[in-house]
Design brief:
Blueprint lengths: L1 E4 L3 E7 L3 E12 L2 E10 L9 E6 L2 E13 L6 H38 L2 H9 L5 H49 L3 E13 L1 E12 L1 E12 L2 E12 L5 E9 L26 H8 L27 E3 L5 E5 L2 E12 L6 E10 L1 E7 L8 E7 L9 E7 L2 E8 L7 E8 L3 E12 L8 E14 L5 E8 L9 E8 L4 E2 L4 E8 L4 E13 L9
Parallel strand pairs: 1-4, 2-11, 9-18, 12-15, 16-23
Antiparallel strand pairs: 2-3, 3-8, 4-7, 5-8, 6-7, 9-10, 10-15, 11-14, 13-14, 16-17, 17-20, 18-19, 21-22, 22-27, 23-26, 24-27, 25-26
Helix pairs in contact: 1-3
C-alpha cells in the first residue's frame, strides 16, 4: 500500500453556537492499487468520530476506510509562530545594537567631561600665553556643542529602546497566544482507497471541531429614511487552525442538544422519618455524634472560561442566504472570510436591512417628568433576529447599548430611543379632601384629583402615550373608584393602569385630569395612601 500526504486547505466552514464543521479539499494524481492518503496538522480540538471523507475526479476509486491518529512535533508546526520567533530575535538583536551605541555615547561623554574639568590647565596656558582667549573659547564651545549632541543621541537611542520593548512585549504575547492555541500535537486523518483506474482525485474531508462559536450582533441606525439594521455575526475560534478565505455558513443548531429529548424522573413524596430520642442518640454515639455533619456536595467541573472579546474587524459582504432546516436556521455568506485560529473575533455581515419604524412618545409622569421616544418596528425581512446585543445610533450620534430578543419574520419589536426635552410633561396633585358626608358614619372616603400637562415644542405633530394609575384594593372592605377622567383613558387595566393615546399638534399644550375616591372603614389603618 502506497502512503502519501495530500495537501489540503480549508474551503468551507459551518459555525454553530458551540462548535464548527470544517471542510478541507485537496487533489493529486493517483495510480492503480491500494493508496493511503494522509491529511496532516489537523487541530487538536477535532472530534475523531466526526471525520468523514469523500471525493471525485477522473480516477476510479473506492473508499475503504477513514481513521485518525495523534502526531507529536518537536516544534509548534505553524508558520506564523516561526515568523513571530524570527521577528522577536530581530528585535532583540536591534536592542543589543542600541545598547552598544549608548555605551559608545556614554564613553565619549566621559572624555568630554574629563576635558572640561581641566580648568587649571587652561588657566595656566593663558597665564603663560601658550593659548589665546579665542583658542580657549573655541575649546569650551566644542565641548558644549558636542555634549548637547551626545545627549540628544542618547535620548533618541533610549526612545528607540522603549519602542522596541513595547514591540517585543506585544510579539511575545502574540507568540504565547499562538503556542497555547497550537500545541505540539496534531491529528492526522488517514484515508484508505482502492484505485481501480489512474487519474486525478479531489479529496474532500469534513470534521467537527470544538473551540469555535458565533453570536449575533446588531448595529441599529435611525435616520430620516427609516431604521438601518446591520445584522452581524461575530465568529470566534481558538482551534489553532486558521480559516483563510473560507466560505462561511452560520447555523443556529446546537448539535450537542438537538439529539436528546429531556425526560422527567418520578417525583416521589414520602413521610419524614421520625427522629431518634436525644438520649438514645447520645448513648449510641456520644455527644460528638449527636448532630451528623452534612456530606459535602460533589465537586462539579468548572465551565471553561469564555474568550474575552477583543478588537473586531468588519467584513463588508453581501446579504447571506437564509434557509431553515428543521428547528434551526442557517445563513450562508456569499463571500469568503479569514478567521484566525487564535481566538481573535471576526465580524461578518449577515444582512443589511432597512425597516420602517413607527415613532411614538411614552411618559409615566408619576415616576419621571420625561417623555421617552419609542420605535415600534415590524420585521418585514425573511431573517429571524436572534437574541443578542445591539448598538443604537441616531444619525452619527451614539445613543447607547441595548439588546434584541428573538424576533421572527413578521413580528414587531420595540426600541427605546431616549428622552426628548422638546416634549414637556408635568404632573400635579389638584385635590385631596375627605368627603364630609361620611364624617359621622363608620366609613371614610377620600377624593383625589391629579392633572397632567403636556406641551409639544417640536416642529411636527407627535403621538404621545400617557400612563398613570389609581390604587388597587387588596381588601374587600376597601373600595377604589375612578370617578372622572378628562379626556377618558383609552384603556384601564385590571391593575388600574390608565393609558391615554394623544396626538399633540406643533406647539400645542393639553391638560389631562382624573379623579378617584378611596373608601374604607374609619377604624382601618390603610397602607399606601398619600
Amino acid at each position: 500500500m502506497t502512503t502519501q500526504a495530500i495537501p489540503t486547505q480549508v474551503t468551507a466552514v459551518t459555525v454553530f453556537p458551540d462548535r464548527a464543521r470544517v471542510t478541507r479539499s485537496g487533489g493529486l494524481p493517483l495510480q492503480p492499487g491500494l493508496q493511503r492518503l494522509e491529511v496532516t496538522t489537523l487541530p487538536l480540538g477535532l472530534l475523531p468520530d466526526s471525520v468523514r471523507a469523500g471525493g471525485r475526479g477522473t480516477a476510479r476509486a473506492k473508499l475503504l476506510g477513514v481513521a485518525t491518529r495523534l502526531e507529536h512535533f518537536v516544534d509548534t508546526p505553524v508558520e506564523a509562530a516561526r515568523a513571530l520567533e524570527r521577528r522577536i530575535e530581530e528585535a532583540e538583536d536591534a536592542d543589543t545594537a542600541l545598547l552598544g551605541q549608548i555605551a559608545v555615547v556614554e564613553k565619549e561623554q566621559k572624555y568630554l567631561d574629563a576635558l572640561a574639568a581641566q580648568s587649571e590647565v587652561f588657566a595656566r596656558g593663558l597665564a603663560l600665553r601658550d593659548r589665546t582667549p579665542d583658542q580657549q573659547s573655541a575649546i569650551f564651545d566644542f565641548v558644549s556643542r558636542r555634549s548637547q549632541r551626545l545627549q540628544a543621541e542618547q535620548a533618541a537611542f533610549n526612545k528607540q529602546r522603549r519602542d522596541l520593548a513595547k514591540a517585543l512585549d506585544r510579539l511575545r504575547r502574540e507568540l504565547k497566544t499562538i503556542q497555547s492555541a497550537r500545541p505540539k500535537q496534531r491529528y492526522v486523518a488517514v484515508v484508505e482507497l482502492e484505485v481501480e483506474a489512474a487519474g486525478d482525485f479531489e479529496l474532500e474531508l469534513t470534521y467537527v471541531v470544538t473551540g469555535a462559536n458565533w453570536q449575533p450582533l446588531y448595529d441599529l441606525r435611525l435616520g430620516a429614511a427609516g431604521l438601518d439594521l446591520s445584522y452581524l455575526g461575530q465568529v470566534t475560534q481558538n482551534t489553532g487552525e486558521d480559516w483563510p478565505g473560507a466560505k462561511l455558513t452560520l447555523s443556529t443548531a446546537r448539535p450537542s442538544l438537538t439529539l436528546t429529548i429531556p425526560e422527567l424522573d418520578p417525583w416521589y413524596l414520602r413521610p419524614r422519618p421520625p427522629l431518634a430520642p436525644v438520649a438514645a442518640r447520645a448513648k449510641a454515639g456520644g455527644p460528638q455524634q449527636m448532630v451528623a455533619a452534612a456530606p459535602a456536595p460533589a465537586a462539579r467541573p468548572a465551565a471553561e472560561a469564555a474568550p474575552q472579546p477583543q478588537a473586531m474587524e468588519h467584513f463588508a459582504v453581501d446579504d447571506a442566504v437564509v434557509s431553515a432546516a428543521g428547528a434551526s436556521l442557517t445563513y450562508a455568506l456569499p463571500g469568503a472570510a479569514d478567521v484566525p485560529g487564535n481566538g481573535e473575533p471576526r465580524k461578518v455581515t449577515i444582512a443589511s436591512l432597512r425597516l420602517v419604524p413607527e415613532l411614538t412618545y411614552i411618559t409615566a409622569p408619576k415616576l419621571e417628568a420625561l417623555c421617552y421616544r419609542r420605535a415600534e418596528i415590524k420585521n418585514t425581512s425573511a431573517y429571524s433576529f436572534l437574541a443578542g446585543p445591539a448598538q443604537l445610533f441616531e444619525g452619527d450620534e451614539y445613543l447607547g447599548a441595548t439588546a434584541l430578543e428573538f424576533v421572527a419574520p413578521g413580528q414587531t419589536f420595540e426600541l427605546v430611543l431616549g428622552a426628548d426635552e422638546r416634549l414637556r410633561v408635568e404632573r400635579e396633585l389638584a385635590a385631596r379632601d375627605v368627603d364630609k358626608a361620611f364624617i359621622l358614619g363608620d366609613r371614610r372616603r377620600i377624593r383625589y384629583a391629579y392633572t397632567i400637562t403636556l406641551e409639544n415644542l417640536r416642529d411636527t405633530p407627535q403621538a404621545v402615550v400617557v400612563l398613570d394609575q389609581i390604587p388597587v384594593a387588596r381588601d374587600e372592605q376597601i373600595k377604589v373608584k375612578l370617578d372622572a377622567a378628562d379626556p377618558k383613558p383609552a384603556e384601564q387595566s385590571e391593575l388600574n393602569i390608565l393609558e391615554w393615546k394623544l396626538t399633540l399638534d406643533r406647539g400645542a399644550k393639553q391638560t389631562l385630569r382624573f379623579d378617584f375616591t378611596v373608601e374604607h372603614p374609619r377604624a382601618m389603618d390603610v397602607i399606601g395612601l398619600i
